[in-house]
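Before we proceed, please read the two lines closing this message. Let me know whether the C-alpha coordinates fit the sequence:

…
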Amino acid sequence: QVQLVESGGGLVQAGGSLRLSCAASGRTFSTYAMGWFRQAPGKEREFVAAISWSGGSTYYADSVKGRFTISRDNAKITVYLQMNSLKPEDTAVYYCAATERTPTDWDKEYNYWGQGTQVTVSS
Protein backbone atom coordinates (compact mmCIF):
# COMPACT_ATOMS: atom_id res chain seq x y z
CA GLN A 1 0.00 0.00 0.00
CA VAL A 2 1.31 3.46 -0.93
CA GLN A 3 -0.15 6.78 0.15
CA LEU A 4 0.77 9.91 -1.78
CA VAL A 5 0.53 13.56 -0.75
CA GLU A 6 1.31 16.37 -3.20
CA SER A 7 2.44 19.86 -2.27
CA GLY A 8 4.02 22.91 -3.84
CA GLY A 9 1.21 24.16 -6.03
CA GLY A 10 0.18 27.78 -6.15
CA LEU A 11 -0.30 30.88 -8.26
CA VAL A 12 2.56 31.99 -10.50
CA GLN A 13 2.95 34.38 -13.41
CA ALA A 14 3.65 33.12 -16.90
CA GLY A 15 7.36 32.40 -17.32
CA GLY A 16 7.76 31.56 -13.67
CA SER A 17 8.64 28.31 -11.93
CA LEU A 18 7.19 25.96 -9.36
CA ARG A 19 8.43 22.75 -7.81
CA LEU A 20 5.87 20.14 -6.90
CA SER A 21 6.63 17.44 -4.37
CA CYS A 22 4.90 14.13 -3.79
CA ALA A 23 5.65 12.51 -0.46
CA ALA A 24 4.97 8.81 -0.25
CA SER A 25 4.46 6.42 2.60
CA GLY A 26 5.30 2.77 2.47
CA ARG A 27 8.55 0.85 2.55
CA THR A 28 8.17 -0.34 -1.04
CA PHE A 29 8.21 3.14 -2.60
CA SER A 30 11.52 2.52 -4.30
CA THR A 31 10.02 -0.35 -6.30
CA TYR A 32 7.28 1.79 -7.86
CA ALA A 33 7.48 3.82 -11.02
CA MET A 34 5.96 7.25 -10.50
CA GLY A 35 4.04 9.59 -12.70
CA TRP A 36 2.60 13.09 -12.74
CA PHE A 37 -0.72 13.82 -14.39
CA ARG A 38 -2.84 16.94 -14.59
CA GLN A 39 -6.44 17.85 -15.15
CA ALA A 40 -7.69 21.25 -16.22
CA PRO A 41 -11.32 22.33 -15.75
CA GLY A 42 -13.54 20.71 -18.33
CA LYS A 43 -10.74 18.56 -19.70
CA GLU A 44 -9.67 14.97 -19.30
CA ARG A 45 -6.75 14.02 -17.12
CA GLU A 46 -3.53 14.00 -19.11
CA PHE A 47 -0.06 12.58 -18.68
CA VAL A 48 2.74 14.97 -17.77
CA ALA A 49 5.82 12.94 -16.83
CA ALA A 50 6.94 9.59 -15.46
CA ILE A 51 10.06 8.13 -13.89
CA SER A 52 11.30 4.59 -13.37
CA TRP A 53 11.82 3.13 -9.91
CA SER A 54 15.57 3.79 -10.10
CA GLY A 55 15.21 7.25 -11.57
CA GLY A 56 17.28 6.19 -14.52
CA SER A 57 14.51 6.60 -17.09
CA THR A 58 12.21 9.55 -17.51
CA TYR A 59 9.37 10.30 -19.91
CA TYR A 60 7.56 13.51 -20.77
CA ALA A 61 4.53 14.70 -22.63
CA ASP A 62 5.50 16.73 -25.68
CA SER A 63 3.74 19.76 -24.22
CA VAL A 64 6.14 19.94 -21.26
CA LYS A 65 9.34 18.51 -22.71
CA GLY A 66 12.26 20.86 -22.12
CA ARG A 67 10.37 22.84 -19.47
CA PHE A 68 9.52 20.25 -16.79
CA THR A 69 11.83 17.82 -15.02
CA ILE A 70 10.75 14.81 -12.99
CA SER A 71 13.06 13.38 -10.36
CA ARG A 72 12.90 11.22 -7.27
CA ASP A 73 14.75 10.74 -4.01
CA ASN A 74 14.10 7.21 -2.77
CA ALA A 75 15.84 7.93 0.52
CA LYS A 76 13.30 10.69 1.17
CA ILE A 77 10.52 8.67 -0.54
CA THR A 78 9.61 11.74 -2.54
CA VAL A 79 9.14 12.48 -6.22
CA TYR A 80 9.44 15.98 -7.64
CA LEU A 81 8.25 17.90 -10.66
CA GLN A 82 10.28 21.01 -11.44
CA MET A 83 8.23 23.24 -13.71
CA ASN A 84 9.95 26.11 -15.51
CA SER A 85 8.77 28.57 -18.14
CA LEU A 86 5.20 28.04 -17.05
CA LYS A 87 2.38 28.96 -19.40
CA PRO A 88 -1.28 29.71 -18.71
CA GLU A 89 -2.17 26.42 -20.40
CA ASP A 90 -0.28 24.59 -17.65
CA THR A 91 -3.02 25.61 -15.22
CA ALA A 92 -4.52 22.44 -13.75
CA VAL A 93 -4.73 20.22 -10.72
CA TYR A 94 -1.57 18.12 -10.67
CA TYR A 95 -1.62 14.56 -9.37
CA CYS A 96 1.16 12.15 -8.62
CA ALA A 97 0.61 8.45 -9.03
CA ALA A 98 2.43 5.17 -8.43
CA THR A 99 2.50 2.01 -10.47
CA GLU A 100 4.05 -1.40 -9.90
CA ARG A 101 4.53 -1.67 -13.65
CA THR A 102 7.00 0.12 -15.87
CA PRO A 103 6.55 3.89 -16.35
CA THR A 104 3.67 4.68 -18.66
CA ASP A 105 1.55 7.55 -19.87
CA TRP A 106 -1.63 5.48 -19.41
CA ASP A 107 -3.35 6.52 -16.20
CA LYS A 108 -5.19 3.20 -15.86
CA GLU A 109 -1.86 1.50 -15.13
CA TYR A 110 -1.38 3.51 -11.93
CA ASN A 111 -2.62 1.93 -8.70
CA TYR A 112 -2.23 4.78 -6.25
CA TRP A 113 -3.05 8.48 -6.52
CA GLY A 114 -2.58 11.58 -4.45
CA GLN A 115 -5.29 14.14 -3.78
CA GLY A 116 -3.82 16.71 -6.17
CA THR A 117 -2.38 20.20 -5.89
CA GLN A 118 -3.62 23.25 -7.80
CA VAL A 119 -1.27 25.08 -10.15
CA THR A 120 -2.51 28.36 -11.60
CA VAL A 121 -0.46 30.30 -14.14
CA SER A 122 -1.57 33.87 -14.81
CA SER A 123 -0.87 35.65 -18.09
